[in-house]
Amino acid sequence: MASGQDLLDRAAPHVGERYVLGARAPKDNPDWKGPWDCAEFASWCVFQASGRLFGCDQARNPSTADAWTGYWRDDAQRLGCGVDVMTAKSTPGAFVLRFPAPGLVGHVAISDGRGGTIEAHSTARGVIRAAVDGRRWDIGVLPPMIRYAEPDVLLPVVASGLVLRLKQPNMKGALVLRLQQRLQALGFDPGMPDGAYGPHTAAAVHAFQLTQGLVADGEAGMATLKALGLK
Amino acid sequence: MKIDWPVLFRDALGAARSAVEKNAPQIEDFLREIGRAHEDAIRSIGDAYADGDIDAETFASELDDEAATLAAELRVAAVMSKAIAQRAANAFRDTVLAGVNAAVAAVL
């Protein structure tokens, strides 16, 4: 069985390759060099290391299987292989996952076990090495077809600051209102500005992020708020 | 609005320790280290509430999320039961919530 380190070794040579949201990677093509999106890259690495699909639709054909962060969430829950983010941060080849809001995409990255990541990040940055810390993640994932050693040392995760996002009940406040007004002024329709972060606001944030080459997850963290001139 | 974060975090860690007194020596180091990793996030959320950027309900909900993460990390790091980790995280959360609410109320 392939190890987490084997998986990382498959991922590393792809740093610098191109990102296209919605790109489809044939998981059984070892020579694929992109374009990638985050889930396609993560699922391709799992398949290349293990010969098994994870985080994909039900098609089960590795040439055409569609990877998505929602399928990553579903597989993690169905197979009981979700862990806390600290464990994933400390485990080479583990994954950190941000769940998608309805109708949107989340994000998934491979942990190097030392606080770093390899991930298909965004249109602007492509496949990069980045960090686990300071970003919002929902869970860690240890796909069962990969062998993971228990980490020697657990590395605490530095949590992200405030991230405006779709949640129940809706996040509310003056910052949400300013965000909606700014989006509207820039031509992205968040619906009637009301200070509540609902689905229209998330969709407008997503559209804005796509134009800026940011991670297009519909969540407004520091990078998105800065790009909007709100931080 | 100025919140005295160092004092508030010291009090919150103290409350978490007290909540699990019997297990305190076992979790002391983990609690300090993990608590520190959450400080900037909690400060950012608390300041956003104090400045009116988010409302009270959003602040409380975000603090709940931080406490849930803190409890999960404590449970793994200190190999403790879910109930004990949750008790420590809840005490931490309640102290931060009360401290920030008091600071906000003081200027209203």
Oligomer: heterodimer
Mean pLDDT of chain B: 87
Q: What is the total tally of β strands of chain B? A: 0
| Total helical elements of chain A | 7
Q: Give the number of DSSP strands of chain A.
A: 6
What is the first-to-last residue Cα distance of chain B? 11 Å
The rough form of chain B would be described as elongated
The structural domain count of chain A equals 2
Q: Numbering strands along the chain, what is their spatial order in the largest sheet of chain A?
A: 1-6-2-3-4-5
Main sheet specs of chain A: 6 strands, antiparallel
Named CATH architecture of the largest domain in chain A: Alpha-Beta Complex
How would you characterize this protein structure?
The complex is a heterodimer of chains A (231) and B (108). Chain A is of the alpha+beta class and 231 residues long. Chain A has helices at 4-11, 38-50, 69-79, 85-89, 174-185, 199-212, 222-227; strands at 82-83, 95-98, 107-111, 116-122, 126-131, 139-141. Chain A folds into 2 domains: 4-141, endopeptidase domain like (from Nostoc punctiforme) (endopeptidase fold (from Nostoc punctiforme), Alpha-Beta Complex), CATH 3.90.1720; 174-227, no CATH class. Chain A has a 6-stranded antiparallel β-sheet. The longest helix of chain A has 14 residues, at 199-212. The radius of gyration of chain A is 17 Å and the shape is globular. Chain A starts with a helix and ends with a helix. Chain B has one domain (5-107). Helix content of chain B is 83%, strand content 0%. Chain B has helices spanning 5-19, 24-50, 56-77, 82-107. In chain B, helix 1 (5-19) runs antiparallel to helix 2 (24-50), helix 1 runs antiparallel to helix 4 and helix 2 runs parallel beside helix 4 (82-107). Chain B is elongated, with a radius of gyration of 14 Å. The termini of chain B are close together. The mean pLDDT of chain B is 87.
